[in-house]
Design goal:
Distance between the termini of chain A: 56 Å
Largest sheet of chain B: 4 strands, antiparallel
Helix content of chain A: 55-70%
Number of strands of chain B: 8
Strand order of the largest sheet of chain B: 1-2-3-8
Helix content of chain B: 55-70%
CATH superfamily of the largest domain in chain A: MetI-like
Number of strands of chain A: 0
Largest sheet of chain A: none
Radius of gyration of chain A: 28 Å
Distance between the termini of chain B: 30 Å
Radius of gyration of chain B: 26 Å
Oligomer: heterodimer
Order of helices and strands of chain B: HHHHEEEEHHEEEEHHHHH
Shape of chain B: globular
Number of domains of chain A: 2
Structural class of chain B: alpha+beta
CATH topology of one domain in chain B: MetI-like fold
Largest interface: A-B, 57 and 57 residues
CATH topology of the largest domain in chain A: MetI-like fold
Strand content of chain A: under 5%
CATH architecture of the largest domain in chain A: Orthogonal Bundle
CATH architecture of one domain in chain B: Orthogonal Bundle
Structural class of chain A: mainly alpha
Number of helices of chain B: 11
CATH class of one domain in chain B: Mainly Alpha
């Protein structure tokens, strides 16, 4: 008997895909073993990962010590990492030498920071307009909260600032202040006025041409020579100004790239509509240029945030400075790997978050057809 | 016009104000401005020097030693970072899921951690966790890694080395002229020669033949453990190793992303059109994708090279004697000439970066797509 069913042409039901192209096997084949070279690469990578995991798991976790009072005690307990150096000094790593009983103030400022920044970052946030008012006054709020001196808050000197708190202060201030200056410089560089253009170019090229560390040296040692005799002003403020100038030069270049990427037709159309320079700039140039340059701006911000570590070279106690101070202590001498890895983790988490945000935004702003 | 005058007046005014303050301050401190200190004996030692230097040499010589150290770390770092970065960038585009993701996480980890931290971390690892010279990690009998740094065999030129140099120059000259000839031949007759194959063979075999024919004029000075440390061979200081390592793995992550973005930036249609014309995959890559990707890749690549050079100034944190550590560090502290030394340091970095950016602008305008 003929068991084969007969189908009218075109009515045969779909057959399942051939085995080996779907499911785990199919995925493995397609992604790891599609050719001889690919298979070798996969095997080598797997062996490498196996070695990495087995070699580091012991040191990082299994043989690590979290509670000890000195390096000696650590080494006597177990052979792995000595995380005790971090746990014993975590307060300093976060706040520097900010007085213990006042530490709620930077905490509050940090929470306010999230509230102030959220409406800038997320366009769909509820009550966005109202929150903008808070963002506008936030710098003053944060300043008085952290430095004190009014409303009965005891004053705290900036020399007490340190740790991740200092990183946040330098980073956030630098980011906030450098964006408007950067936009101004970018417009200045494209300006039709020769003097404005020359000055902008000179400023940008000078700032981009020298290492930040030399600028910080200037801020810390030489600035007094250039001010009227007897003026002193705060080291942290000087550093903030230098960092802001440095970052704004880079932002200016990113935005210039954005401005140059706008097709000529846009300007011609604006001119045909009778818009003047400022109208063209505010309504046509900047909105488009900013959109194009957002990834570059965020990258510059990440760079600035990472560059805040350089303040350690002129003696400010950012997390790296706190770490080095801990290592200079005879009790913890030699635990550099643990200390620096901990600080590295902090920077990785914050910078990675920023770069993810930039990707998300880029995706959102991408109105082009794909 | 009025605006221009105001701007110029404001800028000159503030400069004048700063300089008059400087003059007043200098007068109050009884200091004078001048560069004569550069010709006084430096009086300090530099542990890594590429030219002759003793502590009786002048400050200007110390600065040159520092500048050469900066150049050394920058060049070695750029070469290593480019090799590693290009490999990583290509792996990022591979269709192997595992390798692609390992490269991705490597890139994310190294570029999201500040460079200063990289430098300190590697320096700490070498100084604190590497074994003493007696228990050094040895690769074969010629490479030793210990907490005193890295020891490598040092090639020593002997009589007859000129033949080898000559052969290398000749090989490169051949490659240059042969490539030009092959290109001309192709554009005139359409005939294609296996250029890259022939070039490769000549580049390898010509120096090798010269090397053997002149009786191997290079001998190796191997490092050997004598007493508490190694003698002989080439010694790379821990600071140099840490700095080069940190700079190259940090910059490699950026280069990898640049390479990847450059290749991805080429519109899909270009590849499809090339395939539709019947070009083989290798030719699609070398004739269509890469020439266009190059235009996207080279400008950011150069600025990464520049960044690496500027980042090498962080050497001061671990005591590597580069330009900032010699001229802007010890010389500054010994002579008290903050303004002069910092002006020189900044000036030198400025000259380096401006010349690179002039070259870059020239390149950009030469490859720019022509608009109306």
């Amino acid at each position: 008997m003929d068991t084969k069913k007969h189908y009218a042409p075109g009515s045969h039901p779909d057959l399942p895909p051939p085995p080996g192209t779907i499911g785990i096997v199919g995925w493995l084949y397609k992604n790891l073993f599609s050719s001889v070279g690919n298979s070798i690469l996969s095997v080598v990578t797997i062996l490498f990962l196996y070695w990495l995991v087995t070699a580091s798991a012991g040191w990082f976790v299994l043989d690590a010590v979290v509670d000890a009072s000195s390096r000696k005690e650590c080494k006597a307990t177990n052979s792995g990492a000595c995380w005790a150096v971090i746990f014993k000094r975590i307060g300093q790593f976060v706040y520097g030498f900010y007085p213990q009983e006042e530490r709620w103030r930077p905490d509050t400022a940090f929470i306010f920071l999230i509230v102030a920044v959220a409406p800038l970052l997320y366009p769909n946030l509820p009550f966005r307009r109202q929150l903008f008012w808070f963002s506008a006054v936030y710098p003053a709020v944060a300043y008085f909260l952290i430095c004190g001196g009014i409303f009965g808050l005891p004053e705290v000197g900036t020399n007490k600032f340190g740790g991740f708190m200092l990183t946040m202060i330098v980073g956030v201030t630098g980011i906030g202040a450098s964006l408007p200056i950067g936009i101004a410089l970018a417009l200045g560089r494209q300006s039709r006025l020769l003097s404005v253009r020359v000055i902008s170019i000179a400023f940008i090229e000078f700032m981009r041409g020298v290492p930040l560390i030399t600028l910080l040296f200037v801020a810390s040692t030489m600035l007094n020579y250039f001010l009227p005799p007897g003026t002193t002003f705060n080291l942290l403020l000087r550093v903030l100004i230098m960092v802001t100038f440095f970052a704004s030069a880079y932002i200016a270049e990113v935005i210039r790239g954005g401005i140059q990427a706008i097709p000529k037709g846009q300007y011609e159309a604006a001119a045909a509509m009778g818009l003047n320079y400022w109208q063209t700039t505010m309504l046509v140039t900047l909105p488009q240029a900013m959109k194009i340059s957002i990834p570059g701006i965020v990258n510059t911000f990440i760079g600035l945030y990472k560059d805040t570590t350089l303040v350690v070279v002129i003696g400010l106690l950012d997390p790296l400075g706190i770490g080095r101070a801990a290592l200079a202590d005879a009790k913890w001498n030699g635990l550099s790997t643990e200390t620096y890895l901990f600080v590295a983790l902090f920077f990785f988490v914050s910078c990675f978050a920023m770069s993810r945000y930039s990707l998300w935004l880029e995706h959102r702003l991408n109105t082009e057809h794909k | 016009m009025l605006l221009q005058v105001i701007v110029i007046a404001a800028v000159f005014g503030s400069f004048g104000w700063l300089i008059s303050n400087l003059v007043t301050n200098f007068a109050a401190l009884n200091k004078n401005f001048g560069f004569d200190f550069l010709f006084q004996p430096a009086g300090y030692d530099i542990n890594q020097r590429l030219i002759e230097y003793t502590n009786r040499s002048t400050h200007i010589r110390a600065a040159v030693v520092g500048l050469l150290n900066t150049a050394l770390v920058a060049i070695v770092g750029i070469v290593l970072a480019t090799i590693l970065g290009v490999i990583l960038g290509i792996i990022r585009l591979s269709n192997n899921w595992l390798a692609r993701n390992v490269a991705y996480w490597y890139i994310e980890f190294s570029r999201n951690v500040p460079i200063l931290l990289h430098i300190l971390l590697w320096h700490g690892i070498i100084i604190n966790t590497m074994p003493h010279p007696k228990k050094a990690i040895a690769v074969g009998d010629f490479l030793f890694l210990s907490n005193r740094g890295l020891y490598l065999p040092q090639p020593i030129a002997e009589v007859g080395i000129a033949a080898l140099y000559l052969a290398i120059v000749a090989a490169f000259a051949f490659v240059f002229f042969f490539s030009r000839y092959a290109k001309k031949l192709q554009s005139e007759t359409g005939r294609q020669l296996p250029v890259s194959m022939i070039n490769f063979i000549v580049l390898i075999s010509l120096p090798l033949l010269a090397f053997l024919a002149s009786g191997s004029p290079v001998s190796l000075d191997l490092p050997a453990l004598k007493g508490f440390n190694f003698r002989g061979g080439m010694h790379l200081m821990p600071e140099f190793v840490a700095l080069t390592f940190a700079l190259s793995i940090y910059t490699a992550a950026f280069i990898a992303e640049i390479v990847r973005a450059g290749i991805l930036a080429i519109h899909k249609g270009q590849k499809e059109a090339a395939e539709a014309l019947g070009l083989r995959p290798k030719r699609v890559m070398s004739l269509v994708i890469l020439p266009q990707a190059r235009r996207v890749i080279i400008p950011p690549l150069t600025s990464q090279y520049l960044n690496l050079t500027k980042n090498s100034s962080l050497a001061i944190a671990i005591g590597y004697m580069d330009l900032v550590a010699t001229l802007g560090g010890i010389t500054l502290n010994q002579t008290g000439r903050e303004i002069e030394t910092m002006l020189l340091v900044m000036g030198i970095y400025l000259i380096i970066s401006l010349s690179i950016s002039v070259a870059m602008n020239w390149y950009n305008s030469s490859v720019k797509l022509v608009d109306r």
